[in-house]
Amino acid sequence: MPAELIELIKIGSVGEHSKVTVKFGDQWFINDKPLATVHEIVVSLQSSKPNDNENPIPEPHEDLLSPLEVCEMVGISLSTLKRLRRSDNFPVPIALGERVRRWKRDELEEWLTIQRPGNIKR
Which of 9, 22, 77, 120 gives 20 to 30 Å between its CA and that of 71? Predict the structure, then answer.
């Protein structure tokens, strides 16, 4: 296993829902993207972190929420989340892979502030 892949697993950028494949015997892919490309992106994000004396930027996984985290934050079930995704005013998730979606925490918080109590059909 390449050192880059091990590093991505250790920092949580590659998890149990990531699709890791090997093609042509030695070319590694994560969610159908070349390992080198994914590693390069993660490294560039890490190197752009501010100094300790500046306001820290939250880790990427803290800003992007999984479907279960969205359900917990909003107080709904997964089936309600699926229904809300079809509505026009619910935040659109980011596609991180073919079947991996994440929501931006700030967009969900903004959406929640404009919802009136009882407006969310559970």
Answer: 9
